[in-house]
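Before drawing any conclusions, I needed to go through one protein's amino acid sequence and its C-alpha cells, quoted below without any editing.
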Amino acid sequence: MINSKHLLLLLLLLLPLSARAARKPSAHRPGWELVWEEEFRGRKLSDTWTRIPRYPNPSEWNKYMSVDDRLFRVRRGRLTLFGRNNDYLPGDTAHFLTGGVFSKGKVLFQRGRLDIRLRMDDASGAWPAAWLLPEGRWPDDGEIDIMERLNYDTIAYQTVHSYTTEYDLAHRDSQPWGKTAPIRRGKWNVYSVELWPDSMVFFINDRHTFTYRRQAELGPEQYPYDRPMYLLLDMQLGGHWVGPVNPRELPYRYEIDYVRFYQKK
C-alpha cells in the first residue's frame, strides 16, 4: 500500500515528464505523415542549421545578425535565440546583436505542411520571424512569411511576397497576400503553412488564417512558390516597420520548441 508520503514522492518524480509532455505535444497529425522533424535535443545545434551571418550591405532583417555564441542556446528540447545590447564585441560597431539560423543548403521544404512552435518575449523594437526562401532572386522567386511579430503585439503577421506583390500594382491586390491573426501573448503558439502546387494555406494554433491561390491568368511570376525552400528562424531589432529599440528591455528571448514537416498520406 502506498502512503501519502510515497505518493507525493512519486508525483514529484513524474512531474518533469508530464510537464515536458505538455510543453512538446505529440507529432501525430491525422491524415498526415511526419517526414522530418527538429526537436532540438542535446546541447548544441544539429547539422541541419547554420548560424545566419551578417551580410555586406545588409537589409533591415539582417542588420544586427551575429554568429556569436551568446546569441544561441539549446537546452531542454528548445532553441533560444537572443537579441542583446552590443557591449561585449568591441570589434563590432553594431549597437545590437541578434541570432538566427537557417537550413539553407541542408533541408528544403516543398509540398507539405510545416508546423513551428514558438514563444517570444515582449520588447520595443523586437521583430522575430519564421520564413521560407528559395535559392534564387528576391522577390521573383518568392518569400513565405509563416510568422512575424512586432514589439508587444497580440497578433502575428503571415505574408507572401513575389514580383506580383512587390511590383505589379495592377494585380497585387487581386486577392489577399497577407493577414494578421491573434496569438497567445507570452505563451507557446504553433504557426503553420500548407504548401500545395496551386495554393498556400496558413494557420495559427490550427485555426485557418488565410489562403493564397495560384492565378494562372497572371503568369508564373504570381505564384513562384511551388519549389524547394529553406527555413529561416531569426530575430531582428529595430527598423522602419517595427520601430525603435529600448535597450533597457534587452536581452530578448525568442524560443523555438520544434519544427515538423508533414506530407499527406
The chain has one domain: 29-264. The CA atoms of residues 201 and 211 lie 4 Å apart. Residues 4-23 form the longest helix (20 residues).
